[in-house]
Amino acid sequence: MRNTGAQSLLIPRIERKVRQMRRGGATGGRAVAVGLIVVVAVAVTVALLTFAAVSRSSSSGGGSRVAAPQVLTPPTAPSDSSTGGAPGTVVRRGIPFGPPKLPGELYGDVFTGTKLTVTPESVLADLSEARSKSMRVFVITVGAQGHYKNPDGRFDIDLWKSLVDEYRRVDLQEFVEDGTIVAHQLVSEAKARSQWDGTVISNNVLDEMARYSKEIWPTMPTVLRTDPSDLEEHAAAFSTPWPGWKWRYLDAASARYLVRKGRVEDFAATEQASARRQRLALVVGLNVLSGGDGSSGIPSPRSGRWAMSPDELQRYGSTMLLKTTPCAFEMWRYETSGSAFEDVVYFRRPEINEAVLELAAMASRRPARLCRR
Question: What pTM was computed for the model?
Answer without folding.
Answer: 0.77
